[in-house]
Amino acid sequence: MSVVPADVLPGGVLAVEEAAPEPAGLGPRARLWPSLAAVYRAQLSRARVARIPLLFVATFQSVGIMILMRGVVDGGGEAQAVVAGSSVLVVAFVALNLLAQYFGQLRASGGLDHYATLPVPPAAVVLGAAGAYASFTVPGTVVTAVFGCVLFGLPLTHLWVLAAVIPLAGAALAGLGAALGLLAPRPELATLLGQLGMSAALLLGVLPAERMPEAVRLARDLLPSTYGVEAFARTFGPHPDWARVLGDLAVCGGVGVISLAVATWAYRRAAVR
Predict the structure, then answer these.
(1) Of 200, 194, 253, 199, residue with least CA distance to 227
(2) CA angle 187, 190, 193 (to 5 degrees)
(3) How far is the C-alpha of 6 from the C-alpha of 17, rounded, in Å?
(4) What is the largest distance, in Å, between two alpha-carbon atoms of the chain?
(5) Of 16, 83, 130, 175, which one has the fewest beta carbons inside 10 Å?
(6) Which residues lie below 8 Å from residue 219, measured CB to CB, with a gap of 6+?
């Protein structure tokens, strides 16, 4: 009787181990833009039914403010500030207030764990949700602007500038709202911060800057939506200074990039906890 080593047998253990296939590698990482589009569509379909009544409330609120201010402001630069501020207020209500509440509740309920398991970059989650919420502001902002122009007798010629004001102001306010919701330790605090931010946009954006104290004007300059309001208000004049309009829009866009970057960092920070 002879002993044969196991490694020379065709069906031996070592032969099986050597013939075993190598483990498959991981698939390619999801790209930003396809992931962003997927998150945007998902958020848009989920929030469409629930957010339409709130959008009506935001529009009705801005229209009501303009009607009240009509008894105080007759026209001129003050009327331009009221119409522009009330229009951007619709963006602030949805992109800042509601988004802060959404991310605050998502963090408290563990919904971030669901997104953390998906093969999507964190920036796609933040940008997709922010874009979906900002999209709801378009009809209300346009209706508010048209109503305000008719109410105060302002020209409708340059309302097309809203095509730049809405996404840029929406990005700045949505990034701020997402960051507040993700950084707040409790959902109640996220709701409170969102409400305070919208109140700041109301008081500092709708009221004419000429009637504010100097300290309040400095606080107004720190609000991201201020530059969207200023850009829109400058277009009501007979000869708009387009260089200053573009400058305000550029500042608004820069603040939007920074606020969305902060929101992305806050998402990573909240997702790993």
Answers:
(1) 253
(2) 155
(3) 12
(4) 114
(5) 16
(6) 200, 204
| Cβ 168 vs Cβ 228: under 8 Å | yes
Whether residue 262 has pLDDT greater than 70: yes
* DSSP label at residue 186: S
* Residue 204 phi, psi dihedral angles, 5° rounding: -90, -15
The per-residue DSSP string of 127-158 comes to HHHHHHHHHTHHHHHHHHHHHHHHHHT---TT
pLDDT value at position 17? 47
CB of 238 closer than 8 Å to CB of 154: no
Rounded-to-integer distance, Cα 159 and Cα 163, Å: 8
Q: pTM of this prediction?
A: 0.83
In whole angstroms, give the CA distance from residue 146 to residue 227: 20
Query: To which residue do tokens 């002879």 refer?
Result: 2
